[in-house]
Design brief:
alpha/beta, about 350 residues, binds 5-S-methyl-1-O-phosphono-5-thio-D-ribulose, Four Helix Bundle (Hemerythrin (Met), subunit A), 11 helices, Rossmann fold, 13 strands, seven-stranded mixed sheet, 2 domains
Length: about 350
């Protein structure tokens, strides 16, 4: 399933309505896109890269301009707002900056509009291709009969089409391997229970839903062979991914279970380290209520801490699965080699 595409405007699956409704949202300007990103109608690092790219194409079409310099200033300003809509996944800014660069190199408004859309389409296509490559490399790490634990949603919905960690699982299945998945619910916004189980059931892949706090017992009982997760940003000492990933990594180490991270090279931000990354903190109401004001889950006045991501130090990561191959430690030596192939 294609999550995001262009048809006179940006069209995307509204992920807030799944699994109850499959609805396509039409996004006609940058403000609507920023709102969709903030409320997670579109989400997942690679999908955000495509959204950022298409968003700059949208910015070039939002208004009529006579003056090319004023047009470029306007697009730059819109691009900056878009790139900062969510701070943790580096891919959003990567998608925005790549298209913005093409706009600023253009020599007329007409050319900039055409080039921006072409570049955004290329980014979306590249995402599909690299996910399948990553899937092929990652599938080699999976054995027939494996049970894999995952968190959040890293499938078609989190990318343009195939998926990163779920893409690896899909590719293993295509190779004829029987794979079972345990999906963590992923509180508070339940990307695991709402999106991952929905995607896997559609593919006919055996999936069992657990709450996040059940990860320990399933590992302790020997029910999990491997953990595979995605990433929002990989810096030189950690992998930032959905909140709860760090706990899974520590548990996996304790139980001797391999812990893999699947992510494209655009998710690597190797010049930075853990302390440089802003972890998005989301609304307290995500914990005080369960999706709507009718379902209160905590006292209105309770203090809340709601970080959306956590850093997992690289010492917990068995290998990084990328579209250029699988990278094993020592990462400080091996990652720069693979980044050169970008
Ligand atoms: O807050 P979200 O739903 O955007 O968080 C998404 C994740 O943490 C994913 O695991 C990550 O983006 C990798 S998606 C292929």
């Amino acid at each position: 399933m294609r999550t995001i595409y262009w048809e006179d405007c940006i069209k995307m699956v509204d992920q807030t309505l799944l699994p109850a409704n499959l609805k396509i949202l039409e996004i006609k300007n940058v403000d609507e896109l920023i709102d969709a990103i903030r409320r997670l109608a579109i989400r997942g690092a690679p999908a955000l890269e495509a959204a950022g790219a298409y968003g700059v194409a949208l910015a070039t079409r939002e208004r009529d301009f006579e003056d090319f310099e004023k047009f470029k200033d306007y697009v730059k300003e819109r691009a900056e707002l878009l790139a900062n809509a969510r701070p943790t996944a580096v891919n959003l800014a990567v998608g925005v900056e790549r298209v913005l660069k093409r706009v600023l190199e253009s020599s007329s408004i007409d050319e900039a509009r055409k080039i921006a859309l072409k570049e955004a389409e290329e980014i979306a296509e590249e995402d599909i291709t690299r996910n399948k490559l990553m899937g092929g490399f990652g599938a080699k790490l999976i054995e027939d009969g494996d049970t894999i634990l995952t968190i959040c949603n890293t499938g078609s919905l989190a990318t343009v089409e195939w998926g990163t960690a779920l893409g690896v699982i899909r590719s293993a299945r295509l190779e004829g391997k029987e794979v079972r998945v345990f999906a963590c619910e992923t509180r508070p916004l339940n990307q695991g229970s709402r999106l991952t189980t929905w995607e896997l059931l559609q593919d006919g892949i055996d999936v069992t839903l657990i709450t996040d706090s059940m990860a320990g017992i399933v590992m302790q009982k020997g029910m999990i062979d491997k953990v595979i997760v995605g990433a929002d940003r990989i810096v030189r000492d950690a992998v930032f991914n959905k909140i709860g990933t760090y706990s899974l990594a520590v548990l996996a180490k304790e139980h001797g279970i391999p812990f893999f991270v699947a992510a494209p090279l655009t998710t690597f931000d190797w010049t930075r380290s853990m302390k440089d990354v802003v972890i998005e903190e989301r609304s307290a109401d995500e914990l005080r209520y369960c999706f709507c004001k009718e379902c209160r889950t905590a006292p209105e006045e309770v203090k809340v801490y709601n970080p959306a991501f956590d850093p997992t130090p690289l010492k917990y990561v068995t290998a990084l699965i990328t579209e250029k191959g699988v990278v094993f430690p020592p990462y400080e030596r091996e990652v720069p080699k693979i980044l050169k192939l970008k």
